[in-house]
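Note to self: the last two entries modelled the partners one at a time, which told us nothing about the interface. This time every component goes in together.
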Amino acid sequence: MTTSTSDILTVTYESFDATLGTLWGAGPEIGHLAAIIGLVAAIVLSVLGHVGAATRRRSWVENSGSFAVLQLVTLVVAFAMLVHAFLKDDYSVVYVATNSNALLPWYYKVSAVWGAHEGSFLLWTLIMAVWTFAVAMIGRRLPYQIYGRVLGTLGLLNTGFLLFLLQTSNPFLRLVPNVPTVGADLNPLLQDFGLIVHPPLLYTGYVGFSVAFAFGVAGLISGRLDATWARWTRPWTNVAWAFLTVGITLGSWWAYYELGWGGWWFWDPVENASFMPWLAGTALIHSLAVTEKRSAFRGWTVLLTILTFSLCLLGAFIVRSGVLTSVHAFAVDPERGLFLLVLLGVTVGGSLALYAIRVPAIRSRIAYRGLSRELFLLINNVLFVVAVAVVLVGTLYPLAYEAVTGGDKISVGPPYFNRLFVPLMGLLAVFLALVPVARWKRTPIRLFRQVGVLLLASTLVGALFFVIAITSDRVLNTGSIVGVVIAVTLALWLLLSHGVDFIQRKGARPLGYLGMLLAHVGFAVGAVGVAITSVFSHETEVRLSPGDTVELNARQYHFVSVTTVNGPNYIAQRAKFDVGGISLYPEKRNYLARNSVMTEAGIEAGFFQDLYVALGEPLPDGSWGVRIQEKVLVRWVWCGGLLVCFGGLLAVMDSRYRRLALRRDGLATAGKVA
Amino acid sequence: MKRAVFFAPLIGFVALVAILYAGFHLNDPSRLPSALVGQRFPGFQLPELTSGKVLGHQTLLGEIRLVNVWATWCPTCLHEHTTLMDIRKETGLSIVGINYRDDGEKARRWLSLYGDPYDFTIVDANGDLGVDLGVYGAPETFIVDADGIIRFRHVGDVNDRNWNREFLPILDSLTDG
Amino acid sequence: MVSLLLSGLLGVWVAGVSTIDAFEFEDEAERLRYSALIAEFRCPKCLNTNLSGSDAPVARDLRRTVYRLVDEGMNDDQVRRYLQARYGDFVLYDPPVRANTWILWFGPPLLLLAGILVLRRIGSRMTRVSLSDEERARLEAIRKQ
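The predicted structure of the combined assembly is written out below.
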């Protein structure tokens, strides 16, 4: 059999294409028009939702859902038209001409749609429409005034986004009559599996927090921020948060294998832009737990819904305005930046003003004593909010500094962030280990005794670990060893306390509980990975000729050969390295359209370590600069991230959310019968 | 007034927007202020481009000079070259070249082809003087006074606009003083 | 993390072409110090990368300089000061602590302190007997006087 999936797809696509041949010529115009209709739908949605709820016109609100459908359909059409322009190599469209090339494989042509600013923002609005549609469908059983205000707020947001798209970033613009004959190609760094999956997942997370935001706004306007409100908001928030978690995790993994230096996080402004909403979102999902269970923290929780989504918008601003210097940012355009800043100002300023006016009337007071679960969740919130502050201050400080000093520059990088962030996470781990025993209102002190014993056990293991590390032949900084020992001890303690609780727990183990366990375990796994890989990894940079062998951590790396390989749109020098029966193939690729050279690392992934070989420059005498790394436990970092994500998703599937839906369903039918 | 507390997030946010807005008005993010303005020109022992004679820091003393970092691999330098020729012709100001991370043969050919505005050119083949000067690329131009103190640093090409706006006022103040 | 890349600004070096030089070191400790140092400085000509992650000529020169300084026996702080004197604060990813960076360094820790104080206040308020709403309102009224 030689027919592959991609062949079938091509054939299907081509027959489809032939049928609609003439219509396709106007694809970009159809797409543009569809986006405009989408904008109209968003406007109508906001009016029907908000005005309908405010003036108690139930029918307006009930009909608003169909505009959420219309918005989705039009934006799907718009997006499909842009995809089509890429697949057809329609270089009369500026965006296609600057980001694609005929030699590009079809799957990269599709993902090139979101490879630069305009198309990725179209994707953003599309994802916004998907979330709106989901709320319109799933949320039908909400009281109509909440339903209307949530949909209305989502509509308002997408109105802003679509205006921005059409006004400053239209991906459908044509370049006629001087149509280029070749495309400038997609940036080679982006010609990768990472681009296919990372942005859609990340945006799903980012944009998903708009739902929590909309619930917050609806709650503030309606004066309804009780436990029921939290129960409506929670699943949406969890799903968005889980997507953001996996998006960030994948991004980190992508940077690791694609950038060729073996790093997986650099505290770059764009990385921070995605990390801040995640941190705030983490505080939010925990705060929502208290509001749902104890009807407390209302004012604080609703403030977090606003804060989290504001940080998403701030992230979009950082990535797309060019105000901060980053390796990852899009092209600089002041007009776009200004528009986004206005959008940010109106959305966040408006909602914070609403908060300031409405919240004194609705907030609640909390009652707890001593080490209760409320206290632990509050501590979580304090730590995560401080973490947000660290990242925010560190990211924006260079900007403020330059503005205030009138041109002096300062850099804030990994040393700063690590010094402030890591201790916070250490503190967090201490409290996390105590979480399983904490009870609502008040925890009997005897419950803490057992975790104390577990701490003792993990400290012993940590001390043993310390002795082994300090007496090994490796030259290592004692300070970093102590850091790793603390991290491992705390992580172990956390794992033990959660494990013991799981075993001892009497009665049912609902999915919400299991999700919590899984997410916390993910945190511990990730923390161990981060600590160990940062300190115990091996690295060497050597000059090697084919035939040479070098040793790193008792492994022989034999440089076998270099051959020239032709890729679809590049020519590569591919080296072969043999390491104990395994072969690694690092490459140096020259992408023809942009004449740019890229490093492709050769990686042998493993549960305990990655073997990582990257080629440097060829030297005149035929030798190569080669960077060889053994990254110990680096996979744990991303495994941790994935576990955290699954934990979040598992919690959403908890039966109590479905029971709630069913119960109200039952009420509705009962009402009809009566 | 206890309610005022609830306006705190809004006020914080307004401050944030102000900082972000200020970001639009800051200069090109690739520009760096020099740490060396007001400092003595760093010491060096490097050959001259055509004569091969080894020059030291004292060769710069005695008059106000422009010190221009250039290389044949830098397209902006070619663009800037005509401006430097004009400045040399019109003002008679002493210009010293630093041939930065370049091939000597190519550099000599460049000067014979496009003209030589430099009193002499110091060869910094491996970029060590560049590091001492805090140079991060070519072209860059320094104003060094008669005592060998760096008075001004400009990154990027010298053109009529920045010559009149930035260089001349400093040169004027140096000659007046 | 790569989150949609690159402006391709002319004359600015971007990541993705990380470089490899092969220096010889006296011992492992010195090599470690060198690696840590080049990871700590910012490449002046790049968008936002450290010296070890960049292939820009100036990054190569600075790596060589760091290597030379380490080889000559300078300690970490001396190397930092050497580069700072030439390239300014901008090359330090670890910003110096001084009056105009106090907010940067002490702002977040102060926020943590404030958070702890708020927690204590909430806690102490509640360890007292729970009051009914009416009683609490009366208490508020008394407090306000």
